[in-house]
Design goal:
307 residues, single chain, 11 helices, mainly alpha
């Protein structure tokens, strides 16, 4: 994810990283070549070329813009919902850390509280790796003791296994008399909220936009951009490649941005910075228990954050 200070308007025109332009260059070059062919055929080989007026392109372009706008809105809704779920994860983690520090009776020793918080701090890392289908062992090993690490790694859904461990901790403290029934209920509410967060992320990650809809838009965009030079060449002449490439960039960029935002948990530059957010959630819990801060790069320190 790109996080950087506000750029001057001219620097924004030249911004490269974070833009979808680098991945579009081969496709735009293809449109440029098609435009050159259209101009060459019209000017040097056939004085009477395929006479396509701009009217059908205007009608198709308007309809295509509407469909692209709808797809971009749908993709952005998924991205924003994912961001809200991770914000809720931060809030729940802070609440449960506060509860573990303040609700138990004095009979609860500090090591028991630290055990709970360390397991809770492993949850964002486990969720991130599950969403990205990567191996979480290295991150989890920094938070969990070896026996618990083996138990979590042996499960298929590691974030829910960590929630089970948290629930077992609450149950043990309740039976030992360290937590009264109202405190247990407060913990249970936050555990249910965490379950909703995990389920919401899994729903977004496992349910892409309908494939047929994406294919229809993709085919229409490329057919429109490939035939546009033949509709413009009669009126724009040698400027046909310029206008064709610019229009193609507009439509192709919208489709590429929607494709990136559709899966907000990926590693593209415009996806959510889950690495940073996982560290931030862990750091928020460490602050409550008085541990040293973790290094979290910000826009002033590092313009480009690793997802």
């Amino acid at each position: 994810m790109i996080i950087r200070p506000h750029l001057h308007w001219f620097r924004m025109l030249l911004a490269w990283r974070g833009s979808v332009l680098p991945r579009l260059l081969p496709r735009l070059f293809l449109i440029f070549c098609i435009s050159i062919v259209a101009v060459a055929v019209h000017e040097h080989f056939l004085k009477i070329t395929v006479n396509l007026s701009t009217t059908p392109f205007s009608l198709i372009g308007i309809a295509l813009a509407v469909f692209l706008g709808f797809r971009n809105n749908a993709s952005y809704d998924r991205w924003w919902e994912a961001r809200k779920l991770w914000g809720r994860l931060l809030n729940d983690a802070r609440s449960m850390t506060r509860q573990a520090l303040t609700l138990p009776r004095e009979s609860l020793i500090e090591d028991d509280v630290n055990e709970f918080i360390h397991v809770l701090s492993a949850l964002p890392h486990a969720l991130r790796h599950q969403l990205r289908k990567t191996d979480p062992r290295e991150d989890l090993a920094a938070h969990l003791p070896a026996p618990l690490l083996d138990r979590v790694m042996a499960s298929r859904y590691r974030p829910t296994t960590l929630m089970l461990v948290l629930g077992e901790w609450v149950q043990r403290q309740s039976r030992a008399g360290a937590l009264d029934p109202m405190a247990v209920l407060a913990f249970d509410r936050n555990l249910n909220s965490l379950s909703d967060v995990i389920g919401g992320c899994e729903r977004i990650g496992s349910t892409p936009l309908p494939f047929a809809y994406s294919v229809m838009i993709h085919r229409t965009v490329y057919f429109f951009c490939a035939t546009l030079p033949f509709g413009l060449v009669e009126n724009t002449g040698f400027f046909t490649p310029v206008f064709s490439v610019f229009v193609a960039y507009t439509f192709m960029a919208h489709e590429a941005i929607a494709s990136q935002l559709e899966d907000p948990f990926g590693t593209d530059e415009n996806d959510l910075a889950l690495n940073m957010m996982s560290v931030y959630i862990e750091d928020a819990m460490r602050d409550l228990i008085g541990e040293s801060a973790l290094a979290i790069p910000g826009p002033e320190e590092e313009q480009f954050l690793v997802n």
